[in-house]
Specification:
There is one protein chain. With 499 residues, the protein is an all-beta fold. The chain has a single domain, classed as Methylamine Dehydrogenase, Chain H. Helix content is 2%, strand content 35%. It contains two helices and 35 strands. The strands form eight sheets. The protein has a five-stranded mixed beta sheet with strand order 1-29-30-31-32, with no helix packed on it. Strands 11-12-13-14-18 form a five-stranded mixed beta sheet, with no helix packed on it. A five-stranded mixed beta sheet has the order 15-16-17-19-23, with no helix packed on it. A hairpin with a 4-residue loop joins strand 16 and strand 17. The longest helix has 4 residues. It starts with 38 loop residues before the first strand and ends with a strand.
């Protein structure tokens, strides 16, 4: 079955943990820095546009036909996953995973990361899909995860300014096995260092990698995307960690979780971590592939010499009555079975907001938006739930929280607006098809795209007010991004910059 996921969205760098909205400019990471809240403080964003006439369309570019990621904007560049069905470089022919680096001003091509397929089993690296991991940018460094489960640090300017090293084998890396090495050029990515998660931590990939790296000081926190094999009923690497930490300077492994999540993973580990400060303590929040939300102590600033085990502060089982053993016997059961977490946990005012429920392809329909008290310790399953709001189907989304309202989407095609304090529902709206992305709250508006190409703009208010609706020619699997006064909308085959 083709990979279909993406919990997508965007936002702006947070200057303070728990801040409602912060000053915006670039959007160097998927979701608000640290907290992962899907909001932006950009203003002057369009309430509408006309695809036919091009009104308000600044530029648009081809992404081939396999984009399942969301754009990230930093340093005058726009980064987005793309496949190679519309080759930018004639030297690269055939199916590849890829990430484009575009000029923010006009969408012109700067360079690309081209990654051959893993080969041998489509479920290790699904054909036709571009890089599904949104990169994280800091200064002149770009951190992301390839379709071959490699964590890479890239030079912001590609190879146009030379090969920074210490990694210098770009020629072999971008060439399929058994073929003569392609000589790198200025249009190719410059890999500074590379960490292979398959050999480095023993994980086993499934479908495609969806990882958004959380950068904190010298550390990169990321989910490993460990998952089932092609049978969908077996975890090949049950001992592999689900959450790891790398040294951003060298790519060396410095920490990993010790929770033994592997055997309980129902499908894959596609939820990326967030960070917040609770009572003066910095905590990493992580949604496991077992439907449990975890909080770990953030590492102290000093880089450890040996690999550490992350210290767990609390665990919250989002579906405590669900089966915990032999979970794969419930595969294809739409009525009962275990839960998973695909969207990121959002930290907001000492609470964690997260979606959880049955897997959207292989599991039950039942799902929820949960609000968790982040101040407790231990197993807080029975003590930390502030409220729970039922969803019609599971959600891939990361919530957007603004002005005391939570906006979230689900696979049924609904967008929901609920009260952040109480979980009281205010309104829902059906866009007519599944939504795999997240809502973006920005400039008093909420932007939502669906898999039938529908794109709707709502007022960010407790009263439902549809400001604009249109339909793109292709499905929308990612989420809109706002940066420097421009709204970016990704579809399966094109990226639109709208102002």
């Amino acid at each position: 079955m083709p990979v279909r996921f993406v919990g997508s969205l965007l936002c702006v760098a947070a200057l303070l943990f728990g801040a409602d909205i912060v000053l915006a400019a670039d959007q160097p990471q998927w979701g608000e820095r640290y907290t992962r809240n899907m909001v932006s403080s950009e203003t002057g964003l369009p309430a509408g546009f006309d695809l036919a006439s091009g009104s308000h369309i600044l530029w648009s570019v081809s992404l081939g036909g396999g984009s399942y990621s969301s754009p990230v904007v930093a340093g005058g560049k726009v980064f987005i996953g793309s496949n190679n069905s519309d080759p930018r470089d004639p030297r690269h022919q055939g199916d590849r995973g890829g990430m484009l680096c575009l000029n923010e001003k006009d969408g012109s091509f700067c360079w690309q990361l081209v990654v051959p397929r893993t080969g041998g089993d489509d479920y290790l690296d699904w054909p036709g899909v571009g890089l599904s991991s949104e990169p994280t940018v800091e200064g002149d460094r770009v951190y992301t995860v390839t379709n071959r489960s490699e964590v890479v640090c890239l030079d912001l300017d590609g190879l146009a300014d030379g090969n920074d090293g210490p990694y210098t084998d770009e020629a072999r890396h971008m060439t399929p096995d058994g073929q003569p090495a392609i000589e790198p050029g200025p249009a190719d990515a410059d890999i500074v260092w590379l960490f292979d998660m398959r050999t480095g931590v023993g994980m086993y990939p499934h479908d495609s990698q969806h990882v958004s790296i959380l950068l904190d000081g010298d550390f990169l926190y990321l989910n490993t995307a460990n998952g089932v094999d092609n049978t969908h009923v077996k975890i090949r690497r049950p001992d592999a960690p689900s959450l790891i930490v790398l040294d951003k300077n060298t790519g060396r492994l410095v920490a990993k979780d010790g929770e033994g999540i592997g055997p309980r993973i129902f499908h894959c580990t596609w939820s990326s971590p967030s960070l917040g400060e609770v009572g003066g303590r910095r905590e990493i929040f992580f949604g496991g592939g077992d439907g449990v939300c975890y909080a770990f102590s953030a590492l102290p600033p000093e880089i450890p010499e040996t690999v550490q085990t992350l210290e767990r502060i609390w665990r919250f089982d989002c579906d405590p009555t669900a089966p915990k053993e032999n979970v794969h016997t419930y595969s294809r059961n739409s009525r009962e079975g275990p839960s998973v977490i695909m969207g990121m946990p959002v930290f907001y005012k000492n609470r964690v907001y997260i979606t959880a429920g049955g897997d959207i392809w292989w599991g039950k329909y039942m799902a929820w938006l949960k609000c968790i008290d982040a101040t407790k310790t231990g197993d807080v399953t029975t003590t930390a739930e502030v409220w729970s709001y039922p969803l019609e189907r599971h959600s891939c989304a990361t919530p957007a929280i603004v002005d005391g309202l939570v906006f979230v989407t689900d696979d049924r095609g609904n967008i929901h607006c609920v009260d952040a304090d109480t979980g009281q529902p205010y309104w829902t709206h059906d866009v007519g098809n599944a939504i795999w992305g997240s809502p973006l709250a920005a400039d008093g508006k909420v932007y939502v795209g669906a898999r039938n190409g529908a794109f709707v703009v709502f007022a960010a208010d407790k009263a439902k007010n549809v400001l604009f609706a249109t339909k793109f020619d292709d499905e929308i699997n990612g989420t809109a991004t706002a940066a420097n006064g421009v709204l970016y909308v990704p579809t399966l085959s094109r990226l639109y910059a709208i102002r």
